[in-house]
Design brief:
Pfam families: LVIVD. The chain contains two helices and 34 strands. It is mainly beta and 421 residues long. The protein has a six-stranded antiparallel β-sheet. Strands 14, 15, 16, 17 and 18 form a five-stranded antiparallel β-sheet that branches. Strand 8 and strand 9 form a beta hairpin.
Length: 421
């Protein structure tokens, strides 16, 4: 079993700092885990049922003629999309603690708190569970969303017996903590591994496609899953004998994963981290692009990375915007342009078109032909835009429990259907 560590969230509540003999102290919001017995949890945590309404729509994933929509921490909905003008909900897979999936060869790989669960969907009308690998994604617990600007702490919960208990939530309390200790734990300038001198392009496998907010990514025979600090790596060559490989530490704040060829681009609240997978079992650090604290998905096309930063509230103190970063030299990413945004979330690319979900401000469509200079060509207002998946013939977008599908028309898009979840 891998070493098991979970997150602890803390943030100062006031500017008041007191000094004791061992240094200044301050009040912090501390998120302490709420536990459930693992045996009873797993007995009731997985099932397949008839369609049910979405409670809180999360990420989307496209595979063949089907769309899978996450219901945050509850499971995922299966949508038959053979007719994009009239999609139909056909099933709901209950999976407690689920936020992400990835699919290859009719096998779904999904998270359930810290576990990796594998389903067989070769018969979409008879979805079955193949395996559950306990504690495979060990930092993938529920985040304490009530804590403003949460930070990750990997020191306090090592004593929990994760074979006996599952973290199903957080209780946020105010505690007095050492300022020096708090600050030292989030200084991760040295959290890197050896650089990669070169990388090669490799063909992508036939898999499904997730959005820019995904934490799961299948490349060849490997599944890469980012938790709040590490890249968790699985050899999925044999689905009946999935191998849990050594994880790679990145930083204390990572959120998303994207790939281009043999390069991984990891989005985090402090920056974008670039890793090479010339050796797919051991991603190797190349460089990083640092920015202010903010939620940070990233997509890449050619020599440019497009990063949306969402500041304020839970996400951080940076100004919201779209950052265009030159990655011609992977070892020296360079910021070129910042475009102001209101509350950006996910984004996607289809040839020379860039789609940006700007929250309550809707879906924004840009022409990136002259990148890094991009031109706004359309805005779909009066909708909440969360994440997009640009497919070959249509664009999927989700927001506020609604699935939107658009068709490509010349250099723009046109609404094809709206499906209330």
């Amino acid at each position: 079993m891998k070493n098991i560590v979970f997150v602890f969230c803390a943030i100062a509540l006031s500017a008041f700092v007191s000094c004791d003999d061992d240094g200044p102290y301050e009040n912090y919001q501390v998120a302490r885990p709420i536990l459930q017995d693992a045996i009873s949890f797993k007995a009731e945590a997985v099932s397949v049922s008839e369609p049910v309404p979405v409670v809180s729509s999360g990420k989307i994933y496209a595979y063949g003629n089907y769309i899978f929509i996450n219901d945050v921490n509850k499971g995922f909905h299966v949508i038959d999309n053979q007719n994009p003008s009239s999609p139909k909900s056909i099933a709901f897979i209950t999976l407690e603690g689920n936020n992400d999936i990835s699919i290859k060869d009719d096998k779904i790989y999904a998270d359930s708190y810290g576990d990796l669960v594998i389903f067989d969907i070769s018969d979409i009308n008879n979805i079955t569970i193949i395996a559950r690998i306990v504690n495979a994604i060990y930092n993938n617990g529920i985040w304490a969303a009530d804590a403003e600007y949460p930070q990750a702490d990997f020191y306090e919960y090592g004593a929990i017996d994760y074979d006996r208990d599952i973290i199903i939530g957080w209780e946020v309390v105010t505690e007095r903590r050492s300022v020096e200790e708090y600050e030292s734990r989030y200084n991760c300038n040295d959290c890197v591994v050896d650089s990669l001198e070169s990388f090669n392009e490799s063909p992508q496998p036939s898999t499904g496609q997730g959005g820019s907010l995904a934490r799961f990514k299948i490349i060849g025979d490997y599944l890469y899953v980012v938790d709040y600090s590490d890249i968790n790596i699985f050899d999925i060559t044999d689905v009946d004998d999935v191998k849990v490989l050594d994880d790679v530490q990145v930083a204390w704040d990572i959120e998303t994963i994207y790939s281009q060829g043999n390069i991984l681009f990891i989005g985090g609240s402090q920056g974008m981290y670039i890793y090479g997978i010339e050796n797919p079992e051991k991603p190797a650090f190349i460089s990083e692009f640092r920015h202010g604290t903010a939620c940070d998905p990233v997509v890449v096309d050619g020599n440019y990375a497009y990063v949306t930063l969402k500041g304020g509230n839970f996400c951080g103190n940076a100004e919201s915007g779209l950052y265009v970063v030159d990655i011609t030299d992977l070892k020296k990413p360079e910021l070129k342009v910042i475009y102001p945004m209101d509350g950006p979330n996910g984004l996607g690319i289809k040839e020379n078109t860039l789609f940006v979900c700007d929250g309550d401000s809707g879906l924004k469509v840009y022409d990136k032909t002259n990148a890094p200079n991009i031109t706004l060509i359309n805005v779909f207002e009066d909708i909440v835009a969360y994440d997009v998946i640009p497919l070959q013939s249509s664009l999927l977008m989700i927001g506020d429990r609604t699935l939107f599908q658009y068709e490509y028309v010349d250099n723009d898009i046109r609404l094809l259907s709206t499906f209330q979840l």
